[in-house]
From TrEMBL:
Protein's UniProt keywords contain Transmembrane helix: no
The record's note on its domains: The Q motif is unique to and characteristic of the DEAD box family of RNA helicases and controls ATP binding and hydrolysis.
Sequence ranges assigned to domain Helicase C-terminal in this UniProt record: 300-458
Keyword check for RNA-binding: yes
Domain DEAD-box RNA helicase Q per the UniProt entry, residue ranges: 68-96
Its job: RNA helicase.
Record-stated family: Belongs to the DEAD box helicase family.
Motif (Q motif): 68-96
Protein name: ATP-dependent RNA helicase
Group of enzyme by EC: hydrolase
Reactions accelerated catalytically: ATP + H2O = ADP + phosphate + H(+)
Amino acid sequence: MRNHESKSRKVKIQNRLSEVNEIELLEAWIESVKPESGSNPLSFDPLTNKAPVGRLPDGSFSRYAGCDRFSQLPVSKKTKDGLTQCKYKTMTDIQRASLPHSLSGRDILGAAKTGSGKTLAFVIPVLEKLYKARWGPEDGVGCIIMSPTRELAGQLFEVLKSVGKHHGFSAGLLIGGRKDVDAEKEHVNALNILVCTPGRLLQHMDETPNFDCSQLQVLVLDEADRILDVGFKKELNAIISQLPKHRQTLLFSATQTKSVQDLARLSLKDPEYLGVHEESDTATPNRLQQTAMLVPLDKKLDMLWSFIKAHLNSRILVFLSSCKQVKFVFETFKKLRPGIPLKCLHGRMKQDRRMGIYSQFCEQRSVLFSTDVASRGLDFNKAVDWVVQVDCPEDCAAYIHRVGRTARYLSGGRSVLFVMPSEMKMLEKLEEKKIPLRVIKANEKKIQSVSDLLASLLVKYPELQHLAQRAFVTYLKSIHKQKDKEIFDVTKLPIDEFSASLGLPMTPKIRFLKQKLKGKTVSEALSLIPEDTGNENLLELPIKKPDRAKSDVEEVEEDLLLAKEAQEAGENIDSKGHDMLATRVTKKKKLKINVHRPVGTRVVFDEEGNTLPPLARLAATSSGADSVQLNKEKVNQRYAELRKDLKVADKEDKDLDHKRRKEKRIKEKMKYKRGRDEQEEEDEELSGSDAEIPGGRVDKKSKIYFDSDDEDGERKGDIAREGIAADAISLAEQEELALKLLNSMHS
Ligand SMILES: Nc1ncnc2c1ncn2[C@@H]1O[C@H](COP(=O)(O)OP(=O)(O)OP(=O)(O)O)[C@@H](O)[C@H]1O
């Protein structure tokens, strides 16, 4: 027994000695032939396969800058073994360009096309840095790898595990949507490498006792431009403030930032900027065939349906602009049975389900409807045949990342972008960014219409109607919120036709466009109605009437529907569900209600219970001048009454709404106090907000954690915004309050 123990101790000592020797050798090698700062190793001639590697007979070292095989790099045997087992032999361009610099400890800003192997370009230096520092369990967190989405973090974690499997480091995946946060807290201090999303990392920084990153050696931001953009600004600043300045920082993305401000935030030291495909003719992979098709908004679903039916043996990734769009298209198309499995992925799904869907999609032919949650970094086993962008991406970078889900590494792929007539500017912008797009015309004969099928589905399944309405509103909202107004202009969209194309019997109201009328309340708007229109027969309201042929009965039903949705959404509407201001105000067309319209289209009862058409009793019943005068007076009187009623109703609604918001805030606060961080149920939705609108993030009121792909995060942001608006409590006041609380806790 004792013999055995001493033997194993001997082996350990030997291993340690050989590791120490290896590290000394690696350090000497790296130091003696490191590439000049500012050089791009891609311009060096590769070493031949037979050239000796490492220490040469004359005591010098082989050159590693410019070599094209992992075996020629000054990296440890453990890393080399991991790479060999994963069958990685030859380096990709970004790996060739960046590894010689990153292995010598320099900060890196790496930009290379999608699918070009950026992950290994940071995983290898991370492993090597910690290995050379002889990092052990007692040293705590040595490296943080941050990703903007959970799926991507999960994927990076897998690469790290497989390439680093011969090293003894402990690594953990810290992402939102996992329930085991308490268990995580217990272990997080023992981890050497954290692969995380910013929200979850910050949560640990704030909540985990003794969480310590003060010894951090390497910080990696994958999809760095995304993490550096406004959506993550607060989280990132808070995280960075807790990290030591003396560290190595590696930033990678397909669309990199060079903004000095951003880099200053990260305290980079003379970073090596390695944009390996900058000289390339195209910004996207060469094996990617990209097309664009002019598709009007109301024909998008027809086109998508026809496309799917024509590619039943493919793996198709479809991008839509919001999770409500995704849900609607997924649920309805599923019922229409296109003959290929359908799946959907969006930020409101529970994390386990998201992961499950992601792997299922990698395995079989299917269509995956997704929001931008799947647009960055994900490597679907090189198996996506088509990327279909039904809704236009917010900018060229988003386009590049979406199409980058196909044609990865050496494989080919195809993509198609549906562009609406109002978005043609996008094509110019893409061309400017060196994105080779072929604009093609759809074969009209092959397009199958689904609108009628959808309409019947919506009749049969009322819940789908609700989904359709939400999809409709959130789509328009996403367009309205887009920053690039040259491309996105909600007023240019065929709104009624769009509504009909979703199968909706009538156009839902578009509440958010209220702003166009400068935020006036219902009663204020009513007060704008002229006392005397100058035309005895017409009442003009600033309402866009979508379908002139639509009957009044339809209008009543429509209002009821809208009222229901608006109430759910917590909007200010009057007690009868009328939101006259917000109703279909798009092109500010005026609805003219003819008070002389035929009796019988809309049934109204008078005090005796007799049926009357609306306002008919106010209208002229004879052609005599007296009666016209009389009716005008009645009309004005009636309006005055209406205004009064509505003012009262409006006030009641405001009070109710205020109360409701207050209750909601209190509820939310309680929720966060309990430390709940789980993903909300898919169907828990907040009034008209759609979280997948990039840049739509808002300041958070208090400690709220979210990942970019976490629609709940956006929700929480919205809640915070509501809270701020309602309370008008400033950040300074909140901080003061928090301080007081803290002081009282300590005293
Ligand atoms: N040297 C290599 N040899 C063979 N395959 C590689 C090599 N490097 C990376 N790959 C493979 O290429 C694919 C794309 O790699 P990776 O996901 O790192 O790309 P990326 O540049 O990070 O893409 P994105 O910009 O979309 O995040 C992966 O399947 C990976 O396994």
